[in-house]
């Protein structure tokens, strides 16, 4: 990657995408193009990153993409196609398949795109497993999107999308031999670069409700962005899938850390009422009657701290991951700051 190469960030106003744009800007890249859907967010980010050129463009729709991709060499894809007409998980998956295929077809037609780093998720790797004895997952594994009872649409739709992307890359349709690498973040946490994102801490712990304690793997959003760039630059990463996972924790550990570091008033300002966490072994006993379901086989081993994620490529990402306590504390501080501004 040369500093004057044209780089496209699809979904530049997103949680990871905005940090990718910020880090590329700090490195000194001069031709960064970002696509967006929301005019107000794009306008605000434009004031923060005035060197980035913005285009409104939706995956699955052809408008503006020829101009976006003209003379582009490197694509960071943080986006996915969506449709309000989708009714089922499979509908969402077919929409995402269509969107990623359109992007790759137009990238090939451009004649200049060399490589795409496609951000997907751990949900395309470690769920819907038919073997209940399997507890270790690597990038060689795939979520079974056809497994009956999957409870999260991302497990289905993102897996369908990624399979479609690899199918195109390995087919004769890839007439210009575009290279692809995929990155699979676990729970993404940490301070948002922009003021409109609350991270997974907010999604997991807010609300007056009961929830089962469970292990979770996490990664700082800034590390996820830096890993995108590292994978783009690495020839060793070409054609491979990569976990983005810095640490292993539990919901109760995160909540206890927050309670130690912040006042009740501060916690309420960010999270409202915090969730009441049921110990994992108790939750597993409650669910024992549905042991044959996909939900039980996916989630109970996590409640009992039995699942391991192991990357096949520990050396490809030459970067020091942010320590998890720092991630959590700085995420809360940023959300407090944004609340006070609002």
Automatic annotation (TrEMBL):
Q: Answer yes or no on keyword Oxidoreductase.
A: yes
A Pfam entry, by short name? Epimerase
Q: Which domain of life is it from?
A: Bacteria
Question: In what residue span(s) does the NAD-dependent epimerase/dehydratase domain sit?
Answer: 7-235
Keywords assigned by UniProt, alphabetized? Oxidoreductase
Has the keyword Oxidoreductase been applied to this entry? yes
The text of the family note is: Belongs to the NAD(P)-dependent epimerase/dehydratase family. Dihydroflavonol-4-reductase subfamily.
**Protein's UniProt name:** NAD-dependent epimerase/dehydratase family protein
């Amino acid at each position: 990657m040369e500093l004057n190469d044209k780089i496209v960030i699809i979904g530049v106003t997103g949680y990871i995408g905005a940090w990718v744009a910020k880090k590329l800007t700090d490195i000194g890249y001069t031709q960064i193009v970002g696509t967006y859907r929301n005019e107000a967010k794009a306008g605000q980010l434009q004031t923060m990153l005035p060197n980035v050129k913005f285009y409104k463009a939706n995956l699955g729709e052809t408008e503006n993409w020829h101009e976006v991709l003209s003379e582009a060499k490197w694509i960071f894809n943080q986006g996915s196609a969506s449709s309000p007409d989708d009714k089922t998980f499979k509908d969402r998956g077919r929409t995402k398949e269509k969107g990623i295929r359109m992007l790759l077809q137009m990238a090939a037609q451009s004649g200049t795109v060399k490589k795409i780093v496609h951000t997907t998720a751990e949900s395309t790797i470690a769920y819907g497993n038919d073997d209940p004895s399997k507890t270790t997952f690597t990038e060689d594994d795939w979520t079974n999107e056809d497994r009956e009872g999957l409870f999260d649409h991302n497990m289905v739709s993102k897996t369908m999308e990624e399979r479609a992307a690899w199918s195109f890359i390995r087919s004769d349709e890839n007439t210009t031999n575009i290279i692809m690498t995929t990155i699979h973040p676990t729970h993404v946490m940490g301070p948002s670069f922009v003021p409109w994102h609350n991270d997974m801490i907010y999604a997991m712990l807010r609300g007056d409700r009961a929830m089962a304690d469970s292990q979770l793997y996490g990664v700082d959003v800034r590390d996820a962005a830096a890993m995108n760039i590292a994978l783009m630059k690495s020839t060793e990463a070409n054609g491979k899938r990569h976990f983005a996972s810095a640490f292993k924790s539990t919901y109760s550990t995160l909540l206890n850390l927050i309670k130690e570091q912040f006042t009740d008033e501060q916690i309420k300002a960010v999270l409202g009422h915090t969730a009441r966490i049921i110990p994992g072994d108790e939750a597993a006993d409650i669910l024992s009657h549905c042991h044959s379901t996909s939900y039980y086989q996916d989630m109970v081993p996590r409640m009992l701290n039995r699942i391991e994620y192991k990357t096949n490529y520990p050396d490809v990402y030459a970067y020091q991951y942010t320590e998890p306590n720092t991630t959590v504390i700085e995420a809360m501080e940023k959300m407090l700051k944004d609340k006070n501004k609002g």
